[in-house]
Predict the structure.
Amino acid sequence: MAMCPAREIISLPSIGPTQFKAAMRRIANTVTVITSRSGVAMNGMTATAVCSVSAEPPCILVVINQTNRSHALIERTGTFVVNVLSDDQEYLAQHFALKSDDPFAEVEYRYGMTGVPLLPGCVASLECVVESQTRSGTHSIFVGRVVNTDKDDGSPLLHTDGAFVKLERHRPA
Ligand SMILES: Cc1cc2nc3c(=O)[nH]c(=O)nc-3n(C[C@H](O)[C@H](O)[C@H](O)COP(=O)(O)O)c2cc1C
């Protein structure tokens, strides 16, 4: 393929959403549930757009659709928790990918130091205070400073090609 001269690259058209999603499906991601709370209103949403930013200060980022109910809660309170699901918690990933009027009605939880619900049995949880919010297209990128963590044994649940999968660990014979 011939390369464009530098001054023309900036005017290249974007690819369409179908082509974009087909490429993004090839990425394997760790599955999390991002929880949030404002008074009696609590929410959780399944999310894979989660990434480490820096260790000093300890920061992570999450990317949330501006139409999600979690977006409004996090924007209002400036707090969220990233619960990293274990590979036996696919039911939580399925549950929190759907909107429900009372998402915690049949889900076990406890409150963390920020007052946001934590899901027991996760391989890790990171309690965050929002440092910055950047709108990008349909989503917001929230950078959260991590104020508390918890971790447990087990393997993280993964998601790739539209399916939840377990990590296979190959141990030397
Ligand atoms: C595997 C998987 C990963 C997802 N990752 C994200 C994500 O990173 N960001 C996002 O905004 N939505 C993501 N979603 C969609 C939300 O989970 C879904 O829209 C949810 O209903 C939002 O809930 P809320 O409106 O109650 O906050 C994902 C869904 C699935 C199944």
The chain has one domain: 28-158. The two ends are 46 Å apart (CA to CA).
